[in-house]
Design a protein that fits this description.
0% strand, globular, mainly alpha, 11 helices, Fic-like fold, single chain
């Protein structure tokens, strides 16, 4: 799967540039000089809350914060928090100029899925690609591939991640869109897709702060998010271009959200919503 031609699609190159500028401007916020870990951690909580909202599980930020430290009986939220914590462990430290060694995509997906679903999904389905059954989530995106066809598409996506030199925005958008299209697991595919895409945006250098909260933009416009994902799933140039453009807009919105968090960290008073 070659991603370079996507840059020639209408609006994609501009989306890449706008996202890059938004992330560069965020990087030089005063909070990232000494307190970037606090900003990243808070962003992770908010990304988790918004990702759960997309899944239909609405909880206040205060509950997410308490579950992160104390645990609790909200299995989907606790699982999403575990997935967030896992991908954040793979994120490079701010200022680290070395390359980031991530597991091969298949292993990465399995580990994130185990984190997200262990304890509430049947053990036989945790961390394993679907074989004959259809996905239990995101059914509005149509039927999913199964068995060997599914495994082959996941393998192809893994090779793309390993070999591609496309801009991080394009790569993360394609991985996110493809995971929503394939829905490789029995459940929690959206949570896995968003967590892995967040990791790629940081590991590939677009967001070195690791504090974008793109999920809030998608949660606030759920139908456009799912509609753009459905367009990507068609594989048409117009559908793919629209998805990548929307991705760039979400990154810019996520950078604005991160700036609010960074302001709160500096002021010692984080926003409550």
């Amino acid at each position: 799967m070659t991603l370079a031609p996507l840059l020639a699609l209408p609006g994609v190159a501009a989306a890449v540039d706008h996202a890059r500028v938004a992330c560069e401007e965020l990087r030089w916020h005063e909070a990232y000089r000494r307190r970037w870990r606090e900003v990243r951690a808070e962003a992770g909580l908010r990304a988790t809350r918004a990702s759960c909202e997309i899944e239909g599980v609405r909880v206040p930020l205060s509950l997410v914060r308490s579950l992160a430290t104390e645990g609790g009986s909200e299995p989907v939220v606790v699982g999403a928090l575990r997935a967030t914590a896992l991908v954040e462990r793979w994120m490079p430290a701010l200022g680290d100029r070395g390359s980031v060694a991530l597991p091969p995509l298949g292993q990465l997906l399995a580990q994130v899925h185990v984190a997200a679903t262990g304890g509430w999904l049947p053990d036989a389905s945790v961390g394993r690609l679907r074989t004959t059954e259809q996905p239990g989530d995101l059914r509005g995106l149509g039927p999913g591939l199964v068995g060997e066809e599914l495994a082959a598409r996941v393998e192809l996506l893994g090779r793309t991640v390993q070999e591609s030199t496309a801009p991080a925005l394009v790569l993360a958008a394609v991985v996110h869109g493809e995971l929503l299209t394939l829905r490789p697991f029995a459940a929690a595919n959206g949570v896995v897709a968003r967590a892995v895409a967040r990791l790629l945006l940081t590991a590939r250098g677009l967001d070195p702060t690791g504090s974008l909260v793109t999920e809030t933009a998608w949660a606030a416009a759920l139908n456009p998010y799912l509609g753009a994902a459905a367009g990507f799933a068609t594989g048409t140039p117009s559908g793919v271009a629209a998805w990548v453009r929307a991705y760039g807009q979400a990154v810019s919105a996520g950078a604005a959200e991160a700036r609010v968090i960074a302001d709160g960290v500096l002021a010692g008073s984080l926003p409550t919503s």
